[in-house]
Amino acid sequence: MTSSKKISFEVIKRLPRYYRYLGELLANGTARISSKDLSSRMNVTASQIRQDLNCFGGFGQQGYGYNVESLYRSIGEILGLYNGHNTIIIGAGNLGRALASYRSFEKRGFKLVGVFDNNPSKIGQYIEEFEILDIDTIEAFMQTHKPDIAVIAVPKAAAADVAKRLAKLGIKGLLNFSYTDIDAYEGVEIENVHLSDSLMTLSYKIENAKAQD
Questions:
Q1: Is 94 a residue whose pLDDT tops 50?
Q2: Can you say whether residue 45 is alpha, beta or left, with left for phi > 0 and alpha for psi between -120 and 50 degrees?
Q3: Where are the domains of the chain?
Q4: Residue 84 contacts by C-beta under 8 Å, 6 or more apart in sequence?
Q5: What angle do CA 154, 159, 165 make, to 5 degrees?
Q6: Do the strands 85-90 and 189-192 form a parallel or antiparallel pair, or are they unpaired?
Q7: b/e for 93-120, b at 16 or more Cβ within 10 A?
Q8: How far is it, in rounded angstroms, from Cα 153 to Cα 213?
Q9: Would the CATH topology of 9-78 be identical to that of 85-196?
Q10: Which CATH architecture has domain 9-78?
Q11: Pair 175, 152: CB distance under 8 Å
């Protein structure tokens, strides 16, 4: 049960980590786990875990811990993973191809239904079982397949126009890998992913560790 109070984005960002670790525990046959044991695996304090989960009504029992399967399923429900999300990829370059071949999409409830590009030399080729479709056919495709998430893997100069086009067609969420931030559109959730930012953060951590030696 989700609390009626506003949940901080920092808590939401940790939920996929909980889901991933609990999935690994479930696969290994672990039936229950304490917040202390979970904290040692995730490098998050037991207090933080309890606070995070209490935002959604609380789970577990004192002296027993958490039922791994129950908590795993509950977090999956909170994240909306069991509702299913038809997903498309815009851009069939190296990144788009790698994302189209990523098999964990469907395990997490994201069903890839189409890959698009505007390059005539790529249109008609296949990535796994997916034929690369002409971006100019996307209006008819959207009406038929009704995807609600689009992954944008196009050059940054094209990203804004692609996002605007998709927003007008009724897409509900954009995962943007185009190395530029996309402005918000009404009714569209946007997640901008910057791999270079993560690398620079890692660089800082390395340099900071050196300074403390």
A1: yes
A2: beta
A3: 9-78, 85-196
A4: 109, 111
A5: 115
A6: unpaired
A7: eebbbebbeeeebeeeebebbbbbbeee
A8: 40
A9: no
A10: Orthogonal Bundle (1.10)
A11: yes
Nearest to 23 by CA among 72, 83, 80, 79: 72
**Residues 109 and 81: beta-carbon distance below 8 Å:** yes
Kindly report the pTM of this predicted structure.
0.82
The residue written with tokens 């889901």 in the block is: 19
The pLDDT tens digits of the residues spanning 142-168 come to 999 999 999 999 999 999 999 999 999
Q: Report how far residue 208's alpha carbon sits from residue 213's, in angstroms, rounded to the nearest whole number.
A: 9
Long-range contacts of residues 132-140, Cβ cutoff 8 Å, at least 24 apart? 132/92, 135/90, 138/88, 138/165, 138/166, 138/169, 139/169
Q: 3.40.50.720, 3.40.50.2300, 3.30.390.50, 3.40.50.12780: which CATH number matches 85-196?
A: 3.40.50.720
- The interaxial angle of helices 9-27 and 35-42, nearest 10 deg, is 100
Q: Is the pLDDT of residue 1 over 50?
A: no
Model confidence at 63, pLDDT cuts 50, 70, 90, reads low
Question: Does 4 have pLDDT greater than 60?
Answer: no
pLDDT at 69 over 50: yes
